[in-house]
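Hello,

Following up on my earlier ticket. Below are the two sequence lines again, exactly as submitted.
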Amino acid sequence: MNHFARTAGDWISDRWATVGDRVSDVVGKRPVKIPLIIVGVALVYLLPILNLPIIATPESDFPTVLFTVTVYAIVAVGLNIVTGYAGLLDLGYVGFYATGAYVIGLLTAYHFAWPFLLVLPIAMLITLVTGVLLGAPTLRVRGDYLAIVTMGFGELIRITIRNTAWLGGTSGIKSIPAPQGIGDKSTGVFQIPHLDWSTGTPLVDLNRQTKFLVFGVLDATPYFWLALTALIVIIVIERLVKRGRVGRMWEATREDEDAAEIMGVPTFKFKLLAFASGAFIGGLAGALFASKAGYINPISFPANLSMLFVAAVVIGGSGNRWGAIIGAIIVAYLPERFRQLEDWRLLFFGIALVAIVSFRPQGLFPPGNRARAQRAARRAARDAQREVPVV
Amino acid sequence: MDFSFLFSNFFELSITGLVLGSVYALVALGYTLVYGVLQLINFAHADVFMWGTFVVAWVFILTGASGSTTLLGAAPYLLIALVAAASASGGLAMLVERIAYRRLVRKRALSYIILISAIGASFVLSETMGIRDKVVALIDGIINAVVGLFGGHIDIVGWLSDYTSRARGVTTLPLTIKPQVVFSAGNFSVRDTDLTIILAALIMMIGLDQFIRRTRLGREIRAVAQDPEAAALMGSNSTSVVSKTFLIGGIMAGVAAVLYQIKVGATTFDLGVVLGIKAFTAAVLGGIGNLRGALLGGLLLGVVENYGSALFGTQWKDVVAFLLLVLILLVRPTGLLGQTLGRARA
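Thanks for your patience. The regenerated structure is below:
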């Protein structure tokens, strides 16, 4: 049974790879690729407007769900740098998420009333500094210990917030203002009606219009656009960094720290860089979350959330940004789509973690180079078996 | 910082610190034993302990204990609870090993892959407890769908309602154990519960220490810790030794759960997060993989934590353990007594 499961899995992944290669042969050509990407991105932007049946969530507000999924995707991209590229298991990522959220809360509502777009970069910078401050002493610790230490730091940040009145204490920060929009508050620059599929055919729902670009409690669509734009910017930057020297240094450090050090990689520096970049992106996600939620308190950032983030990256495929994003979609979207499963979600992802790690430790969508290497190794093993001379 | 409070209550703080420290030490054993044998962090261990605390509460509900009594009056209930919690935690620990570890250990997976698997197991354990009302409702639904075919109905939800109520809240013991002052001097007094907890923990630790030193299984555990391959060549089945190591750790967690309930008398499904970090800190402080280190680390952590919360206020209590952990890992990662289960010191 086991053997069968393994060979069947291999067969499917080999098959998928060939299909994938063929598709990418056609799609991979630049003149085809660029328009395809543009159409795809436009479709994602229009998701809350199109309100497609099956994908849309009947029991919760669809644009809000899309916003949450996007924030999780940002978190997954950030955590993927730390855990996937640099190989540092971070169980306290929620600490950075909380830091970003609290900087927004403190500077736009609690102590000052600065505009969101000014505070956003400040929030990211402060989270970056937090990442460096926490990383500098702890990143000398290796492997499993690091995981526990980061988990401790996640709790440390939460407890510090809870116990400090200046940071809002247990009662948290209320009425965080929405970001400044464009155009008139009541109409926006222009309005886009949503589609309504309740009769089976798409109808233009004039009662439900998104004002471009007015952030408010009633309509989460502008927030989704903001978060999606942030996600795309992050992916573009992250891709540039990953493809360059820094990305290779991270991977070398992950694969074998000692060997990398001998080859002249200043591993500590690059681990710290990965940790700080992860923190920076986590801060962005937290800031977006706070401005949409309008209310934050320490209970919004439990240790569980870190585990959920790690689950997203590992289930999706640690080391592959698209895998991590798909993991985030699974973790954030499925429980909203199937609302009756909401209470079961942590239990379900616990089981999923054990199962994934036992049967497919590379995740659902592992990074291309690793998958290719594994396929090559399997093929070599198979060939070697065939070539054993009969004695 | 409130130094005068610390000094005027120094002995009181030390005693209560030792009490909590005993619990940490017993839980730390689970980390230290598994780390000694597999060089892996037993991440789900704190949740095994959490299940133990619930089993204690359930035994009290089942036997109909209520009201308030002295420690002696509660002794019969506590003995039943001890057996039940130790077997439940021990069994669960073995289950965790079987499901989350064995396959990966055999495949020689990377340690962080196994850690993720253990995190998954820890999630499953704490969440099944956290939504136990819904789990029972689901089982009830399935069974009644079958029984309904024959026209019957079994009210499982009703039967178990005492055990599943407030699944995400605090479950308190129905029986309050009133501590009796054994002797007091000045402004500090020693209560019988405190003495019992410290003594029980000490007895368990000494017993385990001797067990690992003198028995056949103990020798096998030490052998596997030293060199699994050589141990296998000498005829010990390392898979079963690892499984039994988890069992011993689980039993210790069950005992710790009873002691914890004597002291605190309440538990929640997410108890494992903070207690796990503390017990792990205790294990690392003493030198992970070292049994006597776990005792020293646990007691030390309990006391230091108490002094810390006296100085900075109780709301900072949990922070002391985290900071201590980071400090040890930076300054002396091998802990106070060094890391050895394989050596003679174990």
